[in-house]
Specification:
The chain has one domain: Up-down Bundle (Growth Hormone, Chain: A). Helix content is about 80%, strand content about 0%. It contains 15 helices and no strands. The protein is globular and about 60 Å long.
């Protein structure tokens, strides 16, 4: 591996990014699959949307909750060990779900197990990789890796919908299981633990900023909570946590989980509505990568204000549109460009405020807020649809909350927190 790495020189950092991008893409595809499978599971088992939404919400919540613990586990046991273990569990959990017959098995496989596993292959993985492998262009690379999580959420949906239409939902879960397993040898072969292990230095510097950083054998649970307690004494942590809660609520939880069902209520097929999400994925790859480029050059708070403002207006607009090709196309373009453009400026603010050493774990806690918001919307919108018979209130409420998050973003400070405590 070292010889291969040295052949690329510092540019091997981009090979590491490519591997990480692929893993994040597959994990995001796993998290997106219930959006396609919600109706087939309802038809196949007769389970209510409420119980299926509960399983999805548990998976999303645990996906986010694992963030800070995943960062601490990577610090204690290494990125490769954690990543390989997570991919194994993702594969086994989705494979086992092909044989489920009861709701508790859905909750266990797609809620608990896949949530815990995919939570180790999420935004905190990207943050950890970037802080180890890059000194320059961190915003741009984080934009690219962030795009992989959201693009994976969206671009797999048309494929999953087609597989479901032709071969049934069992084929969908088996496809995910096989793909996750196939990544394991790639990670073992091509992913060094840190640049020094491959005889390299981080991209953008001439000295090894991580050479002396041996993997510490810290208690990951204690380390996660100790870092949280330090951060929680700073109001900026709660502003970042709260705004990112809204990010998750308005993306994965609401649109990612319920847009196909919303379109189905307006007599739009799963294949066509999933194609809308795929279009969002294509625009998201552009929008989030561009957001990383902008984050390297402009005030992150102002960028967040713009992103959340556009998102809020789009959500309020959608349920009042006529669901024509034109209106849905406008929504998919705007929402795609804005889908998870919030990640690069949020990570930059976390790095500025809390420093590189604590930032990956703290960003993990902030990302937990993202998934808590997503879980809230996944469950809440499902219950609103079940009680009210329509999704309109869910989308209007989410849009109003996004506008509030836009205003709150401008109040996030930029003072750095000292390693031993809060400045």
């Amino acid at each position: 591996m070292i010889l291969k790495s040295r052949a690329f020189g510092q540019r091997y950092a981009f090979v590491v990014v490519a591997i990480t991008f692929t893993c994040l893409l597959i994990a995001a595809g796993l998290r997106a699959a219930p959006g396609v499978l919600l109706i087939p599971w309802t038809d196949s088992f007769g389970w209510s949307r409420g119980i299926i939404s509960l399983a999805i919400a548990i998976g999303i919540f645990l996906y986010g909750l694992m963030g800070p613990f995943a960062a601490a586990l990577m610090l204690s046991f290494g990125i490769r060990r954690v990543l390989v273990t997570a991919l194994c569990l993702m594969s086994l959990a989705t494979f086992a779900s092909a044989f489920m017959t009861n709701p508790w098995e859905l909750i266990l496989s797609w809620g608990v197990l896949s949530g815990l596993a995919s939570g180790c292959v999420a935004m905190t993985l990207g943050a950890t990789i970037i802080n180890r492998w890059f000194v320059k262009h961190r915003g741009l690379v984080m934009g690219l890796l962030s795009a992989s999580t959201s693009t994976g959420t969206l671009i797999f949906l048309p494929g999953f919908a087609l597989i479901n239409n032709y071969s049934g939902w069992h084929a969908v879960v088996l496809t995910i299981a096989i793909t996750a397993a196939a990544l394991i040898p790639l990670v073992l072969w091509l992913l060094p633990e840190r640049p020094a292990d491959a005889g390299l230095v981080p991209y953008g510097t001439t000295y090894n900023t991580t050479a002396a950083a041996a993997t510490p054998r810290l208690n990951p649970i204690h380390n996660s909570f100790a870092t949280l307690f330090r951060a929680a004494r700073n109001r900026n942590f709660w502003l970042l946590f709260g705004t990112f809660f809204v990010c998750g609520l308005t993306t994965n939880g609401l649109v990612g989980t319920h847009l196909i069902a919303l379109c189905s209520d307006h007599n739009i097929s799963e294949v066509h509505s999933s194609a809308l999400l795929a279009a969002m994925g294509a625009f998201d790859l552009i929008g989030t990568t561009a957001s990383g480029w902008l984050t390297d050059r402009h005030d992150s708070r102002k960028l967040l204000f713009i992103y959340y403002g556009i998102r809020g207006v789009s959500l309020i607009y959608l349920p009042y549109s006529n669901f024509s090709l034109e209106s849905l196309s406008i929504f998919s373009i705007l929402y795609g460009l804005d889908w998870i453009a919030t990640v690069p400026p949020t990570l930059k603010l976390a790095n500025q405020i809390f420093g590189d050493q604590d930032a990956p774990i703290i960003f993990g806690w902030i990302a937990a807020g993202h998934q808590l918001g997503a879980a809230t919307a996944a469950l809440g919108a499902g219950l609103i649809r079940q009680i009210e018979g329509q999704y309109l209130p869910a989308f209007v409420i989410a849009g109003a909350i996004a506008i509030l998050a836009a205003m709150a973003s401008l109040t996030i400070g930029r003072a750095r927190v000292k390693a031993a405590g809060v400045a």
